[in-house]
What we know:
The structure holds two protein chains of two kinds.
Chain A: H1 11-39, E1 42-45, E2 50-53, H2 57-63, H3 68-100, H4 107-115, H5 122-133, H6 139-147, H7 158-186, H8 190-198, H9 203-233, H10 235-241, H11 263-272, H12 278-303
Antiparallel strand pairs in A: 1-2
Helix pairs in contact in A: 1-12, 3-7, 3-9, 4-7, 5-7, 5-10, 7-9, 8-9, 9-12, 11-12
Chain B: H1 2-18, E1 22-28, H2 32-48, E2 52-58, H3 62-74, E3 81-85, H4 89-95, E4 98-99, H5 115-121, E5 122-123, E6 126-127, E7 130-135, E8 137-142, H6 143-148, H7 160-172, E9 179-183, H8 187-196, H9 203-207, H10 220-234, E10 238-239, H11 247-255, E11 259-265, H12 269-279, E12 283-286, E13 302-309, H13 314-327, H14 330-340, H15 347-356, H16 358-361, H17 363-373, H18 379-382, H19 389-404, H20 409-428
Parallel strand pairs in B: 1-2, 1-3, 9-10, 9-11
Antiparallel strand pairs in B: 3-13, 4-13, 5-6, 7-13, 8-11, 8-12
Helix pairs in contact in B: 14-15, 19-20
Amino acid sequence: xxxxxxxxxxxxxxxxxxxxxxxxxxxxxxxxxxxxxxxxxxxxxxxxxxxxxxxxxxxxxxxxxxxxxxxxxxxxxxxxxxxxxxxxxxxxxxxxxxxxxxxxxxxxxxxxxxxxxxxxxxxxxxxxxxxxxxxxxxxxxxxxxxxxxxxxxxxxxxxxxxxxxxxxxxxxxxxxxxxxxxxxxxxxxxxxxxxxxxxxxxxxxxxxxxxxxxxxxxxxxxxxxxxxxxxxxxxxxxxxxxxxxxxxxxxxxxxxxxxxxxxxxxxxxxxxxxxxxxxxxxxxxxxxxxxxxxxxxxxxxxxxxxxxxxxx
Amino acid sequence: xxxxxxxxxxxxxxxxxxxxxxxxxxxxxxxxxxxxxxxxxxxxxxxxxxxxxxxxxxxxxxxxxxxxxxxxxxxxxxxxxxxxxxxxxxxxxxxxxxxxxxxxxxxxxxxxxxxxxxxxxxxxxxxxxxxxxxxxxxxxxxxxxxxxxxxxxxxxxxxxxxxxxxxxxxxxxxxxxxxxxxxxxxxxxxxxxxxxxxxxxxxxxxxxxxxxxxxxxxxxxxxxxxxxxxxxxxxxxxxxxxxxxxxxxxxxxxxxxxxxxxxxxxxxxxxxxxxxxxxxxxxxxxxxxxxxxxxxxxxxxxxxxxxxxxxxxxxxxxxxxxxxxxxxxxxxxxxxxxxxxxxxxxxxxxxxxxxxxxxxxxxxxxxxxxxxxxxxxxxxxxxxxxxxxxxxxxxxxxxxxxxxxxxxxxxxxxxxxxxxxxxxxxxxxxxx
Lengths: 312, 432
């Protein structure tokens, strides 16, 4: 990086070129963010059109009182859900990208098939999974019961339901991750691996010590996009697949909310699920934004250290 | 003066011809063949009324219709006609965005509507919306399975104990694989079972004599229902997909022959009867089984009605009402009923269907219908009114699901009651 010599001589040019992006960000990102913060301080009902300032009451409701156990569980679930989607999702995507990167006949065809799920909307992905995994009449259980005589309760066994939503969310995002990993893999010069092989490194060692570090910029980028995806974009999928349920086992105190209710889904339910409690949903939006903000800062602080951009 | 009046009326006429075809937005929630039926009626009406054009806009769900209509109205562009689900009635009234159908100049004759339907949509003595698609809950019976279990399909279970006994018979006959009964985990059925016991869901006469402030989820009537579901579940008789409000999931379990009994909306009579015929096992309908010793007070209707926007010109309101009344006239309600299984909401339609011999030839509709007509008029069977009804439904469903997952009935319903009361209090505080 040539930090000493700016590309543009004057600030005006730089700002002028940034203007379109800034305008879009202000209109579609910053303004709504400020609005939802303001909204979170009101008792506001979409349907009644009422709006009254209540200070931090919406937040108080989330953290103390009757709804607090529910919200604690929802936040916990969200974090576990996102961590699973990001970590498992990237491992699986990398594995598929490595496979698709091999020079075999029909590799173009395989790549196309891998990318395909990304073209679907979350709602469609949810519908496909709900057909496949309907415990009584879904294809998956018909095959399983014929082969092994078992029919797992995908939607009301809490652990299976959670796993199913994680799996569906990963599957939906697979194409996106594979495309980026494939591009990155194809940019890794073959000599490096070759040199390591000559030095006696086996396939696993070459993967660990050469491929993974060289992929780290891409991984760093994908962690962000997947994090944003898992926190903000999955409500359509959840709505169709499980409607946020089932409630967890009482013995583990996980029965205050549906196990697959993430923060964004709960927000959606409160704001647009028929009662129009916009202020309450707004407060949840603010918390969600702060949480993701904190994770992002941490990621830049500590995750950034392990990123190798190659070159000098 | 006279000349000015003439001039103005001429101008007005000129204006109206220039403005020919005022658009009337109609938001509704049906898709596929039901949507097509609505579009066909709109096309017919548009042809007869060249000055107006009904524009049918389908939305994905009842909740989406409500949100979209409210947003449109708040932005100064309200849809003139809106199909709203029954539990949205209190919210629709409180929003102040709609005008009671009877307040629009012209005629809205309510004498031809079936009583339980009219009762539901009457709030404080005013009929707010025009009844359209109405249904209630019935039980479907797999005839072949009942016979295999040594039971008589002509004598379906009538009470909770009857159901448990028949389920035991199914197991005794050696069928350990199939479920005895399936129904979607939906608060609507719970509400029906409350009404059958003449138990209101909320206070203040089910929210009809004043704003509801308390739910009755821990009443004896409520516990009867949940205890029964728990027993069905604990004995392995009950099944569902695990998802709340999964109508299609439970229906699929039944139509694939994996359960002996099924509780569903009458709007599915057509589809399920056909599945029973095609599958060769025969599906018949029966009255909803109810709590032992309950008075069989009757059922609460479900479905949706047609609301007219306050914020549109009077002639548009009148046209919207006229179209709604056309779409729900005697003949059209007959064809709607035959297409879907939803009740014909008009007495004249029922009489005509009766004369045609429709109920005699289609006993599955007759059973469902008899149940509705035998419903006694009370605040319990009129159905509850409360603002946060959609939210309270989810609370009830999650409460029952906790019981299915092993929580005690008392603690689950106790917690549900607290949550629902808080939801009511929150909603009501919008008006203080």
